[in-house]
Write a structure and sequence with these properties.
This protein is mainly beta. The chain has a single domain, classed as Lipocalin (Beta Barrel), CATH 2.40.128. A hairpin with a 4-residue loop joins strand 4 and strand 5. The model has no long low-confidence stretch (mean pLDDT about 90).
Length: about 130
């Protein structure tokens, strides 16, 4: 699965399970900030990936990514998310904690961690205790 899509999954998972907007992510695997934002209102999710300069969004359980022109499907149960990326044909899981999202990419067999940036504070992360 593409690293950009994993970041989108993390942002959608966090916004969808917590109801809080995502202003950005810190990608631990890449050791860098990612300009990915997302928010959920009712059953609609919308977001923007500043890395690729593309929008994503839709009505859950399906989110369309304009960059890959493909859909991501999500099944949300509490703070657990499962789904499928139609662009890569890969399954994923996500676990949402306080200010952090872990995404398991089944094709890679690896977990990827993301800190979630607080939409109300330009440079802080939710689990840093500054939000």
């Amino acid at each position: 699965m593409d690293p950009d899509i994993r970041a989108v999954i993390a942002a959608v998972a966090f916004a969808s399970t917590t109801g809080k907007p995502v202003a950005g992510l810190f990608d631990h695997d890449a050791a860098r900030d990612r300009r990915v934002a997302a928010e959920r209102r009712d059953d609609r999710v919308k977001g923007f990936d500043g890395e690729r300069n593309v929008a994503f969004g839709g009505t859950l359980p399906e989110i369309h990514d304009e960059g890959t022109k493909a859909y991501l499907s999500f099944t949300i149960e509490g703070d657990q998310v499962r789904g499928f990326d139609r662009a890569s044909g890969g399954h994923f899981e996500a676990r949402v904690g306080e200010g952090v999202v872990q995404v398991f990419d089944h094709a890679r067999g690896t977990w990827f961690a993301y800190d979630v940036q607080d939409a109300g504070a330009a440079a802080s992360y939710l689990r840093s205790g500054t939000a």
